[in-house]
Amino acid sequence: MTKPRTQPKRTVEPTANAAYVETAQTSRTSAPKGSHPRFYLASMQDAWEVSSGKIVPALMRYVVRDGLNGTQAVQNGGGKVVGVDATVLKLNLSGKGKTIIPHDIDGPGTSYMVCPYPGHYVDRWTTLYGGADLTTYDRAGYDAWRAGLVDDGHIPAPRLPALERLRGRLQMERDAAARAAAKFGSVVTETEAHAEVKRVEAALVVVDAAIRQCSDLGAPITGGTAEVMA
Amino acid sequence: MANEILTSNLERVDSILSSTRLLLLADRAIMGAHPAILEAGDVAGTGSNVIKVRRLGLDGYNALASATEIQDLTNIAFVDASTNVTVGRYSVSHDASTISMGTDPELDWARFAQSLLTDALTYETTLAAALATGFSDSLGTDATEMSLTTLLTATSTLEAANVSGPYLFVGHSAHIRGLRLEQLLGVAGQMQYQPPAGVQVGTGYKGRVPVIDVDVFQTNRSPSSGSGYAGMLVGQGAIARAHMTPPVSDPSRQRAMGNILIEYGRDPGATIDQYHAHLYVGFVENDDARGVQIICKA
Question: pTM of the predicted model, to two decimals?
């Protein structure tokens, strides 16, 4: 007698069935505007920018998805996803001099990441509005938080080489913007071109002031007196 | 008058399906293979879903020292580095009743297989585009238009870091808007953006900037950054991709195409057809110095 065939036990959670949408005119392939999968912010010692008139760390965002940026899901015995293993991500980043900023760096119960829709996340300075493809962004709040990370000692203040590098970058941007402004039509409008020059020049003033005040040159590299050559 | 024959008193169907139809709007751009994206390999049968990509200090990396005729030189350290790529699974699934499939003039196994394959291929674009926000070098702001000047500056940054080309610019349609405005408003110099010939497609490869050797790829899957969007200019090896070729255990209901597995299932009790696509891939920022993040206003 043939033994009845039994269904093999599933070891992973079944894929959610995709809804069949007949009327929506917007793309189902895109997440709500401004949102991401879960993510980490990371800092890098030499990555800085000028925003809101301050020198603030230029933070990178690393999306956490199975197979992206080295992360992978952690499953329980039934195949249900119970967490994310970011070990490889952290290993990759540490090799590049980048440091992940903990979600609760502002204290227990806080997070810079919020979840307005299940599966979709934003940083806490981004606000999504339901029913419309509209977001607002609190730039000043984000910049104040980034500056606070330095003030609170979570991120070391920029050293002189990093500031010099930032100044070099801004000078390159300023020169390019100035050339564009001089050649009307090469940027959208002449007004916008000149505005860009002014924006970068204002940033340069901030960086120049920081360089004048910066005493942290990093560890000096000294050597003995070189030999005298004939 | 009376007893006229009107549509309202005839036996009629509500409507019929036209043989002409449109696809719902979506970003269907497929980035596919580009020389700037390093293919790390297939993890099938390797014993791990994590693959390590090495960067070696060879072939011109090391400087030679002058030495006297019989001087015994001190050896130098060999420099290498690596990044790990983790291959994960992404899936999409449709369940359909036999009545719905039996009466629909278009939807069947073959049509779903084609669609699911495209879903998987285009999703790879989402994964690759999401890496833009990880590059520490950043140009532009969420308050300014993208410009050719920005692209040129980013190109210069990569060239100064000895990054090999060809370079690939991946940007949102907002980025392309800036480039196109500049083009249409009449750049008179040599920095002409060369759009593709023929019919314009919504997204995808949009031509190249020949003077600086940059391919331009447009995708609205580019992530947001502040109130704008983050694109990226990457050179060879900035991004690494790894994949797994899935095993096919039942060819009668499974088809593997590269790293994509399309399969059909059936729940006979509920008379449900099941169509699945599984994508096995991993993307990672391989080398931070080989890419530049470019932000523009939305």
Answer: 0.85
